[in-house]
Design goal:
- The complex is a heterodimer of chains A (152) and B (184).
- With 152 residues, chain A is of the alpha+beta class.
- Chain A has 5 helices and 5 strands.
- In chain A, a hairpin with a 2-residue loop joins strand 3 and strand 4.
- In chain B, strands 1-2 form a two-stranded antiparallel sheet.
- The chains are: A alpha+beta (152), B mainly alpha (184).
- Chains A and B meet through strand 4, helix 3 and helix 4 of A and strand 4 of B.
């Protein structure tokens, strides 16, 4: 049994320390917003925030988290910028199939928290690890610019 | 006699050209000090050089291709502000070794870029306090024999190749070089 901080709540889970965080979230805690894509930190679908930093939960052993704060897409609306991102995503109809989008939202939220006026290059550099097979990149970029120019 | 007069200077010229060519070749590949040559061969192995790049991004693989996902160096040599190396690279390799990991995974600063340096230049750069993080020779010995990210180079997992010397051979060679005053 180990205890981790997830979305502001201390959660005690019955899981071995080497179980990837993604599977603790999805199986033990039934937080299925974070997706399994590649399982090798190559695609970004499993991105969550660890102390605010986007991190690939599919390769992160749950035992390595310690007291750090985990935040998932289920809770991101409770951050001001997270809610702006979700609203813009809805307004501009950013997702197509949607599978990668919780990871995209987590990466975009972290970017806008760190940089309120990102250039195209800043966006590319922050988002290049989040792959979208539908190719929604132009809409992702547009949504990030829209939030930055209108709401930050 | 006429032929001999022509042949002798011609042969001398070829000989001189050969010496110059050899000198040129040795200046690009061979250290002047035999004590540094084995270190050079380790430091320029892909496990070391892929993150001691002169580029704005890390490299990967023995072919030294640009790192997947087009990740970047970033101001702190640990990636873009919100796409840090640690987003994927943990303190150790993942269970199947597919994603390598070691503490403080990241790029060496640009001042420690070794790409395209010949042995003499790399040796001089390695000892340059303004470039090497203000490390004395004994600091360099400690860094290269104890730092966990450096040591990862000899236990990279999966099918990754390792430097031409074993870790203990490298430390021995490094110690000999340091004890000799770091000749280049």
């Amino acid at each position: 049994m180990l205890t981790i901080q997830v979305n502001g709540v201390a959660q005690t889970v019955d899981a071995p320390e080497d179980k990837p965080l993604l599977w603790v979230l999805r199986e033990n805690l039934k937080l299925t917003g974070s997706k399994y894509g590649c399982g090798q930190a190559l695609c970004g679908a499993c991105t969550v925030h660890i102390d605010g930093q986007p991190t690939r939960s599919c390769v992160l052993p749950v035992g390595a988290i310690g007291n750090k704060a985990v935040r998932t897409v289920e809770d991101i609306r409770n951050e001001h910028i997270g809610s702006l991102v979700q609203n813009a995503w809805r307004e501009l109809n950013v997702p197509q199939c949607g599978y990668c989008q919780s990871g995209q939202i987590m990466a975009a939220t972290a970017l806008l928290k760190s940089n309120s006026a990102p250039s195209d290059q800043d966006i590319d550099r922050a988002m290049s690890g989040n792959i979208c097979r539908c190719g929604t990149y132009p809409r992702i970029r547009k949504a990030i610019h829209k939030i930055a120019s209108e709401q930050l | 006699m006429i032929t001999a007069h022509f042949t002798k200077p011609h042969a001398l010229f070829i000989c001189a050209a050969r010496v110059m060519l050899l000198a040129l070749l040795s200046s690009t590949a061979m250290a002047q000090s035999p004590l540094f040559q084995p270190l050079y061969e380790v430091l320029t192995h892909p496990r070391c050089l892929n993150c001691h790049t002169k580029t704005e991004f890390p490299r990967q693989g023995d072919e030294r291709r640009r790192h997947d996902q087009l990740v970047v160096r970033g101001a702190d040599n640990h990636g873009a502000p919100t796409l840090q190396c640690a987003a994927c690279h943990q303190d150790e390799n993942v269970a199947d070794d597919a994603v390598p990991g070691a503490p403080h995974w990241g790029l060496a600063p640009l001042s420690m870029a070794w790409e395209d340096l010949n042995a003499s230049k790399l040796c001089i750069a390695l000892k340059d306090l303004s470039k090497n993080g203000n490390r004395s020779l004994s600091d360099l010995l400690r860094h290269m024999s104890e730092d966990e990210l450096v040591l990862w180079g000899w236990s990279p997992g999966a099918n990754r190749t390792t430097p031409p010397l074993s870790q203990s051979e490298f430390v021995d060679a490094l110690t000999r070089w340091v004890n000799a005053g770091g000749p280049c």
